[in-house]
Design a protein that fits this description.
alpha/beta, Rossmann fold, 6-stranded parallel beta sheet
Length: 350
Amino acid sequence: MTAARRIAVVTGSRAEFGLLSPVMRAIDDHPDLDLRVLVAGAHLLPPELTVREVTATFDVAGRIPMQEPGATSRGRDALALGRGVSGFAAWLGEHPVEVVVVLGDRAPGIADEAIRRAITGLAHIHLAATEQSAGRIVAMGELPARVHVVGSPAVDGLTRMVPLSDEAYDALGAPEIIVLQHPLGRPPAAEQAVAACVLEACRRAGRVLAIHPNHDPGREGIMAAIRAAGLGECSHLPRPDFVGLLRRARLLVGNSSAGLIECAALGVASVNVGPRQAGRERPDNVLDVPEPSPDDGSIVAQAIAAGLSRSGGTAPAGHPYGGGDAGRRTAAILATLDTEIHCLAKKSTF
């Protein structure tokens, strides 16, 4: 009897875990695969300690400390990367696996595209969310046989996530507008100025709940803007609660990929602010606006008004991010991939 193929899945943040959990479940359920969950990064940071959300669902095989509480500068990120490389190398040296699965674009702001390209170049198997993404990977020189379109796991399981109860929704302030603004890696003052403008435009339009941003450089600036705005705020919501909240709210504003993927699948309008989601496909639910200047948020306010007028819609036709079976597709590929094609030695198509 052939031994199950050992698959390590790395999760480093709350958003990453929300996307990877359907993949992890499908791997865990597959008879020919053996799941090993590695928790790292922001999961281990207080006060949220979102590692608890992971351990409530999966057995955790290893914990790899990286970031330190309150340390979000570029230099601190580099130190965290060094700790991660050392920690992962040590764990993998003691616990050999056949495949390591990572999400390819979990990096902050201005460094995001460069790091995404580096991860693509290092990877041997590419599980693309869309046909367009697959085409870009091949255009970068990756062999087509290594590239598989599976859809986005962010769509998996959405139909099973129900709207928040009245009690839970009211406890969050019954918000009409959800703000989820992540930093782009700029100085805190620059992040604060943009976030303050976005929050003020939202405040004027209706009841607002601001969800705290990722632990990336510039986070403290956005947090300062949230605190100064005096609006409803929330440090973290488990994914089913976040999706349940989106089902009750009228609009998502900010720069999260949830505005392009989950909101589109749910038929929720979204205002995408700034360049953080540059290059991703835009379903019809998305209104794109540039970042506002510190003294003029009118462009955001106009988009919010237009988005609110669209609320209560349905999922757009031709949603590019798949039909909600990315986890199953991924597990099937990992169980059957030909190691002769997906070998360590990579050959360029050029």
